[in-house]
Amino acid sequence: SFSVTPTVLTLLWRRQPFAVPRIASIRRAVHYSRQILIGRLSWAVSNDSDFIVAGRVLGEAPLGAYTLAWTLAHTPLEKLTTLVNRVTPSFFAQIQTQPEALRRYFRNITGVVALVIFPATFGIALVAPEFVSVVLGSKWLGVIIPLELLALHAIIRSNVVLLTPLLNVIGEERLVMWNSIVAMFVLPICFYIGSHWGTAGIASGWILVYPLLQIPLFLRMFRKIHLPAFEYLRSVWPALSGCAVMSAFVAGLKYFTHGFLPLYAQLIAEILVGGIAYSLTLLLLHRAYLHGILQFARKYRTPT
């Protein structure tokens, strides 16, 4: 209804006669749309294949635990991804012939996404045992291991969010389509093999196989926009280093306070210590980077 209503109102306001399209004039658009559509359908199949395997092979109870773990691990990423996917295609489309601008936008948006998603998802993995025990209860202890693994997958996946829209606007939609088709066949097989080790085995497929499938996309992107890999790694280094310090502090807290605090107090302490450690790492070690990100957001609200 959100698409039909504006279309009907537009046609009523400015009537347009119907015409038979010329195939030659729309061939490129049809070809492009077909590849985008096939790629999205293939990815949708592969993205849901873990749930299908969990339900068919493991049964309803493990499927419920796996679904809950997936939801908890990916909620921060999905909220941000929805926003990013609405905005970035139009930005990339306007600057698709400007490699320097593409590099700048890709690096900075990747850095911003990492600053938000990395601590949220990595923090979920760090506090998963206490969180599940306190919030969900003992009957959901089977969620802990898949939650930890899927949270790490969410970190990996956050780095892939921008790849598809960027490659699509620079003429690499065919590669994206075939990559999705390959994933549609490879991932379900890996999930089925992993199901022999339960929900943790299925979640491991996202950690072990999914990153390998994304390597061709990264390599093509690096080559097409002339982005050195070390520059890309530099954009996520502040978030990575902050997460490393955060994990060290939380692990130390777990070691020294294990068994001395009630679980709810332990969970609160871990969240506070982790958040403070991450924030201080950014402020003390990456102040210039944060300032640059803020300047970028203010200066480049629209592509030039």
List the helices and strands and how they pair.
Layout: H1 4-13, H2 23-58, H3 60-94, H4 99-136, H5 144-158, H6 163-169, H7 173-194, H8 198-208, H9 210-224, H10 229-257, H11 263-285, H12 287-299
Protein traits:
mainly alpha; globular
Q: What is the tally of beta strands?
A: 0
What does the average pLDDT come to? 89
Q: CA-to-CA gap between the ends?
A: 34 Å
What is the helix content? over 70%
Structure overview:
This protein is 84% helix and 0% strand. With 304 residues, the protein is mainly α. The chain is globular and about 75 Å long. The mean pLDDT is 89.
Quick description:
84% of the residues lie in helices and 0% in strands.
